[in-house]
UniProtKB/TrEMBL annotation:
One of its GO terms (molecular function) is L,L-diaminopimelate aminotransferase activity. The lineage of its organism: Bacteria, Pseudomonadati, Planctomycetota, Candidatus Brocadiia, Candidatus Brocadiales. It comes from Candidatus Scalindua japonica. The keyword Transferase applies. Pfam families: Aminotran_1_2. This is LL-diaminopimelate aminotransferase.
Length: 408
């Protein structure tokens, strides 16, 4: 018999979403006619926009011709298309602050997070925001970069958890953070909806440079930023090119959750302690373990990153952000304190003194609305639930009406 990977064995049972599913099922067994509305998930619901669909169609047609067919991207024509996409990401997404050679196109930011664990291996220390998108912790555990789960603290030993609370505007107080090799930061944040300011990110960059750490910046929600002056990329911050990697994706803004296309930026200046280029090792990891994103998704992305595509993306984002406003106003009207929802599709609602699973259950049973309990994202999420703005506006309005009628 083969021994189980001891690092995977350290993981706690996938608790959050299975438990939400179990509780939904239990409610439906009691009340089979209940029409549940989910404001709990981060999955997109709106159809791909016209120009993107045209881009996808064109590529499918091209792949069906013998002149146009391409396989792996070592083919000259495929390489030229990939270069076109990188140029669009560089010019139209990053306004030229990143050069195309620093962009590695992928099938999404979560798979890139997975490959980044390979890049750094298990001999690194890791800091994560608490609460956080679960991939950063679980991936670090799987690669063996942490200790065991500690049932007293209910956290993994060896991880530096950076508490993000109302008191620190949901951005870590770096004076309390121990030095680690890697620092995971997500802005706009899932789940708190908070966006780091330029000042906060400058402090983070200075902190990372002083400590010779690398920041892994997850910008998957950058397109949801509405207010002017807030940074959409860590590379808007002076000094970030020496200490940061950024992952990003078309999943949420362009509805590519199923199409799959993202990218990672590794700047040329980023080096390991022996002076070797991080970007070169990243190319090696990606070249060894991954054969690129699909040709079809790339052409969808080329269309998405054109002028027309970008204006369609804005419309989709506006649609979700209108939903966010409806949820936020509805909760405000009930006297519930909320955060986020202005520059992010997530609304972080505070229920001080209550357990987030109890609040989840209360909302589920009284209003038949599904949320996500904050405690599922980390200890600092206790007392909060997350509302997601991904959904049909008609469902969102109905959900808010039910909240108003049943939670008074
Ligand atoms: C913070 C964050 N990063 C990354 C992802 C995954 O994105 P992708 O679909 O590009 O893998 C998600 C998805 O929910 C997310 O919330």
């Amino acid at each position: 018999m083969v021994k189980r990977n001891e690092n995977i064995a350290k993981l706690q049972a996938g608790y959050l979403f299975p438990e939400i599913g179990r509780r939904k099922k239990a409610l439906l067994e009691k009340e089979p006619d209940a029409k549940l509305i989910s404001l709990g998930i981060g999955n997109t619901t709106e159809a791909l926009s016209t120009h993107i669909v045209e881009g996808l169609h064109k590529e499918v047609t091209r792949l069906g011709t013998s002149e146009g067919y391409t396989g792996y991207d070592d083919d000259a024509q495929a390489q030229a298309f990939l270069d076109k996409l990188k140029t669009r990401i560089s010019n139209n997404w990053y306004n030229g602050i990143i050069s195309p050679e620093e962009i590695i196109v992928s099938d999404g930011s979560k798979p890139d997070c997975g490959r980044l664990f390979f890049l750094f291996g298990n001999n690194v220390s890791v800091a994560v925001q608490d609460p956080a998108y679960p991939v950063y912790v679980d991936g670090s555990v799987m690669i063996g970069a942490t200790g065991n789960y500690n049932s007293d603290t209910e956290e993994f030993d060896g991880i530096e958890y950076m508490r993000c609370t109302e008191e620190n505007d949901f951005f870590p107080d770096l004076s309390k953070v121990k030095r680690t090799d890697l620092i995971y930061i997500c802005s706009p944040n899932n789940p708190t909806g908070a966006v780091a300011t330029k000042k906060e990110l400058k402090e983070l960059v200075d902190f990372a440079r002083k400590n010779r750490s690398i920041i892994i910046f997850d910008a998957a929600y950058s397109e949801f930023i509405r207010e002017k002056g807030l940074p959409r990329s860590i590379f808007e911050i002076e000094g970030a090119r020496e200490c940061a990697i950024e992952v990003s994706s078309l999943s949420k803004p362009a509805g590519f959750t199923g199409v799959r296309l993202g990218w990672t930026i590794v700047p040329k200046e980023l080096k390991f302690d022996d002076g070797q280029s991080v970007g070169k090792d990243w190319q090696r990891v990606v070249g060894t373990l991954f054969n690129g994103s699909s040709n079809i998704a790339q052409w969808g992305a080329i269309a998405a990153l054109s002028e027309t595509g970008l204006s369609e993306i804005k419309e989709t984002v506006n649609y979700y952000m209108e939903n966010a406003k409806i949820i936020k106003n509805g909760l405000d009207g009930l006297g519930i304190k909320t955060f986020g929802g202005v520059n992010s599709p997530y609304i972080w609602a505070a229920f001080p003194g209550k357990k987030s699973w109890d609040v989840f259950e209360d909302i589920l049973t009284k209003a038949h609305v599904v949320t996500t309990p904050g405690a599922g994202f980390g200890k600092a999420g206790e007392g909060f639930v997350r509302f997601s703005a991904f959904g049909k506006t008609s469902d969102i309005k109905e959900a808010v009406k039910r909240l108003q009628e049943n939670l008074k």
